[in-house]
Amino acid sequence: MYKWVLVVLFAVAMPLLAQANEAAPAADDPALEKRVSALAEELRCLVCQNQSLADSHADLAIDLKNQIREKLRRGQSDKEVVDYLVARYGDFVLYRPPVKATTWLLWFGPALLLVLGLGVLIIKLRQRRRILAQRPQPSVEERQRVAELLTTNEQEEQA
Length: 159
Hints:
By secondary structure, the protein is mainly α. The protein has 6 helices and no strands. It has helices at residues 2-17, 30-42, 59-73, 78-89, 104-134, 140-158.
């Protein structure tokens, strides 16, 4: 009985213990917020790595969004803000990094792996076909013996 009372009290107390964070204050200027949101969508969260800054709730992402907002408020262009973040964190912060010598593997690596995998598959299939072709084929007598065994086996099953 006491266990059930504890379970009910725990279930009632859980929503009261949950804490919600306050929403980040929006700028007074809706155009500025729109620019911040657009830039945050184009930049990768360095903590989450699979989310944009706009989607992330990590402390670093919030700090970066605040930095973007402040730089835009000071009159910097979108390109200047992105260049600042790239200089500080590298091309990794961009969801669409530029094609250059340091990012070739990132851009062309998947296609290279696909071509390499298809090449290995073709080689293995040819080797398998060659091995199967080199197997000795059963002689006429062996084929006849197999046919006799099969017919005998079928007759025994029917009887």
